[in-house]
Amino acid sequence: MAEKPDFSGIVGKGKKASVAEKEHAKFMAKPKKAREKAAEGFDFKQVTLQIKEKAQAVDRPVMPKPLAKKISATIKEKVLGKGIERIKTGITGLDQLIEGGFEKNSTVLLVGSAGTGKTLFGLQFLYNGAKDYGEPAIFISFEEDRKSLYRHSSSFGWDFEALEKKGLFKVLQYRPHHVEKLMREGGGPIKDQIRAMGAKRLVIDSITSYGLLFKDDYQRREGILEFFNMLEKWQCTSMIISELSPKVAEIKEGSVGFLTDAIISLYYSKEAEKGTRVHSCEILKMRGTKHTNKLLALGFEKNGLTIYPEVEVF
Predict the structure, then answer these.
(1) What is the CATH number of domain 85-312?
(2) Which tens digits make up the pLDDT trace of 86-105?
(3) Domain residue ranges in the chain
(4) pTM of the predicted model, to two decimals?
């Protein structure tokens, strides 16, 4: 009886056999007649492909841990914002705290009680965006009218009328009887204005007032969900103003905060020892962004609101 051939050295000394080589050696170790019989039904092209696929799956080299860690960190950086297109906020001191600005076409919820500066914050976001970066902007109001908004912002030197003449700014005001028609038409005049202007920035003041225009909680929830669906289609970087408490906005499931990409809270808190009130700002959430978790001082300066990154409140 013929001695079986030894194929153990087929891959050479000191070299680890690959899957393909092992498969080949295993087949060649069979008696000649068995090999010939097995070969009769072989589709060699198909078998070769199968062996290669198996080899690639099993013999893939193990990546060294330091290199794997580095690649993982690179991917994480992209996910956390390095590859995200951002726009400048127009709020002095804010951009450096959020990796350069808001994510383009994201939705930001701005919360705070009366007197914290929410409307001014929204107007500054629009004004500087239009004036400094050429991004047309729309302010949708369910509360104040156009003249009132312009009057209150004039002390900061914001000339909205000049921007309006250039086609860079527009105020759209709505009352309760407009809402049903607005929703039925999928945004109607808002959508038309966004397209006509090529608007890039949008502020809604306020979602609280908007919600009150509905008869009951069910209609209110449905109306707000529908409104957010429209926002997504309009492809603007949007700021939604609300008097919702920061805690509710941040953690309550189903609240407006869960529909937005970011939550910024403004406060006007009383300092216990001195008995004085201080304006401050806190970033509660911002998806895909490394941001500060500190409560920071907010000042009402000559040219608008300023956040002081180095000044913590209390």
Answers:
(1) 3.40.50.300
(2) 999 999 999 999 999 999 99
(3) 85-312
(4) 0.70
